[in-house]
Amino acid sequence: MPSYDKIPTYLNPEQRHALTQIPSDLSDRDIARRYTFTEKELELINRRRRASNRLGFAVQLALLKYPGRTLMEVKEVPRAVLTAIAEQVDVPASAFTSYGERENTLYEHLDELRRECGFRSCGWKEYVLVARSLLPDAMESDRPLPLIEAALERLRTNGILAPNMIHVERLVWIVLKIAERRLLHTLTQPLTLEQRTRLDDLLQADTNIRGATRLSWLRQAPGVASPKSIKHLVERLHFLRDLALPAPSVTLHQNRVLQLARKCSKYQAQPLLNLPRDRRHALLVTHLFELAQDLTDQALDQFDRLLGELQRKGERRQEKHLRLNSRKMNSHLTILTKAAEAFLLARTEGNDPVQALLDTVPEAQPQATVDSAKQFLRPEDLDALDLIESRYVPMRPSLLMLYQALDFQPFRRSEPALQALEHVSTLAKHRRRVTAKEQKVGREKMHAPLGHLTQRWRKHALEGDKITPNYYEAAAFEVLKGRLRSGDVAVSGSRRYRPFKHYLLPATHFEQLTEKQQTRLAVNSDATAYLTAKQQEIMQKLVALQESIGKVEGSLILDEKGHLHLPQLEKAVPEDVERLKKRVYALLPHLPLADLLLEVDT
Q1: Do the Cβ atoms of 191 and 246 come closer than 8 Å?
Q2: What is the rounded CA–CA span in Å between residue 18 and residue 75?
Q3: Is residue 526 left, alpha or beta, with left meaning phi > 0 and alpha meaning psi from -120 to 50?
């Protein structure tokens, strides 16, 4: 058992007061839920002869139920709570002031409540019981306040009188320490001596990166989207994979792994070196695991932005072309318009249209205008794809490096973009590009997948059997970008684009939890068993309801089949009132609802 002198206190005075006293703002619903007595409890209360003792005994019973403390520990009982209790025992609330004039009465009543209602003090066995129930929660989060609240609730549920709050805080501290030891052991137990050495090397200065530590190098911000940034991100991902660290066990809650990773992210190299070995390595394992996911997502973000920028560069280049040549294009358009008008007018009037055209525009000018206009002509739909090829070339090595570094997982069996990029990657290993629909690599003939080429890309990438490699690849990356956004393609090791199965527990782990009955699921997987259990639960609650309301004329009746019957109520409104009701309603003014709401709001 650790020394209590070193145990911190988690609660401030306001929190301690809120957990040990009755809130003054309890709603009527909460008062009814927590302080309504059963028929048996009322029978026990009514054994007291004096009114003050009946009310005092009832208050003691109510406080033991919530907040789970004795009357001597609760400084004040709110007036609303006292009134609700007094109404149930049919005693004026003012009678409570004379309760306890004989001090022994308080303790005698408390002893009787313990005997009759099963309340017991919190001893060593109770501490162990609560600690065991809190341990799974402590393995999920290291926040002490929710654990303290859970401990108090479990004490109340089991009829255990809550000890002093300092003891509850000490219990939570011990549970958190046990959970931390288990957590550190689970994270560090799979590590080999070589892997531990690699982790420690991350915290040492490295001359290859100008004396910085590898940890600080891994944490560098990605910067603006560029081929260079993608290359650096991929290099860091390769470095993390070369460490060959085991992933955190699936038995650990993701929230706890994240908490450790965030703690480690706040440490610099030197403070980490000063930590105990297991704690240092556990922090680094979780931090590097989360960092790998962050780097993957950052690389995919850069990929998305880079391709978007590629399209925008083509559009901006087209806009610049149109802007610089707008005067010449307008001049050509003016000449061609005059020529067309003269031609059409001559045809309408029955004159020679060719002679009319030549009279309007000199003979050499139409041909010169057409030849000059062809130099400035853009596609009819103003598609700027034909202007991106030169911009794609410097991006290509980084994009291809990113594709080869990440594990793209399609949800459909056939994903044309990935098939095309796999073909590109295979040829790249032989230092070849995709230049034809069918290419011979060594002794093998390889056919280029074309399913990713839309009509928009096809006119730039295909020319008969020949393929323009830059457009072929750019089209594949563009389609892959759309598949990532739509969720049709996942990326292993990513947080935002991870495969759906990674959100689920592994089947083997779930089977183990099922065998140990630790799934913590509210619903039984067997439908028949679930329905049977729910039917039994409903019957038990209906019987408890019948016992609590007793036998009152005109109340609910529960038959042997578990069906509730409500006797027909007698009409409480006199017939004279019913006759006058319509006349009274007719006298009331008919206001628009909007006007009424505005008036109420004012």
Answers
A1: yes
A2: 12
A3: beta
Mind listing the pLDDT tens digit for each residue in 423-439? 999 999 989 999 999 98
DSSP 72: T
Count of C-beta atoms within a 10 Å radius of residue 602: 5
The structure tokens listed for 299 are 């690389």
3-state SS class at 441: strand
Q: How far apart are CA 219 and CA 290, in angstroms?
A: 11
Q: Which amino acid is at 423?
A: H
| Cα 383 to Cα 315: distance, rounded to the nearest angstrom | 8
Tokens describing residue 280: 């240092």
Give the rounded distance of the alpha carbon of 312 from its chain centre.
33
What is this structure's pTM?
0.73
Distance, in Å, from the CA atom of 255 to the CA atom of 140, rounded to the nearest integer, reads 6
Rounded to whole angstroms, what are the CA distances from 478 to 25, 62, 82, 162, 276? 59, 68, 71, 63, 49
Residue 2 burial by Cβ neighbours in a 10 Å radius (0-12, 13-18, 19+): exposed
Q: Which residues contact 460 (CB under 8 A, 6 or more apart)?
A: 385, 386, 468, 471
At 461 the three-state DSSP class reads helix
pLDDT digits (tens, 9 = 90+) for 261-310: 999 999 999 999 999 999 999 999 999 999 999 999 999 999 999 999 99
Indicate the length of the chain as a whole number.
Answer: 602
pLDDT of residue 569 exceeding 70: no
pLDDT digits (tens, 9 = 90+) for 348-401: 888 888 888 888 888 888 888 888 888 888 888 888 888 888 899 999 999 999
For residues 505 and 517, what is the distance between their CA atoms, to the nearest angstrom? 15
Q: CA separation (Å) from 362 to 81, 333, 356, 358, 375?
A: 105, 15, 11, 6, 21
Collapsed DSSP state (helix, strand, coil) of residue 117: helix
Q: What is the 3-state secondary structure (H, E, C) of 383-429?
A: CCHHHCHHHHHHHHHHHHHHHHHCEEEECCCCCHHHHHHHHHHHHHH
**CA-to-CA distance for 469 and 477, rounded, in angstroms?**
12
- Candidates 68, 72, 43, 73; CA nearest to 58 is 43
Q: Supply the DSSP symbol for 11.
A: -
Integer-rounded Cα Rg, in Å, for the chain is 40
Neighbouring residues of 525: CB distance < 8 A, sequence distance ≥ 6: 514
Amino acid at 358: L
Sign of CA dihedral 392, 394, 399, 401: positive
**Tokens 């907040």, residue located:** 67
Q: What is the DSSP string of 514-543?
A: HHTT----SS-SSHHHHHHHHHHHHHHHHH
Q: Is the dihedral of CA 135, 136, 141, 145 positive or negative?
A: negative
User: In the chain, what are the helix, strand and coil shares in percent, each to the nearest 5?
Assistant: 65, 5, 30
List pLDDT tens digits, range 85-143: 999 988 898 888 888 777 788 888 888 888 888 888 888 999 999 999 999 899 988 89
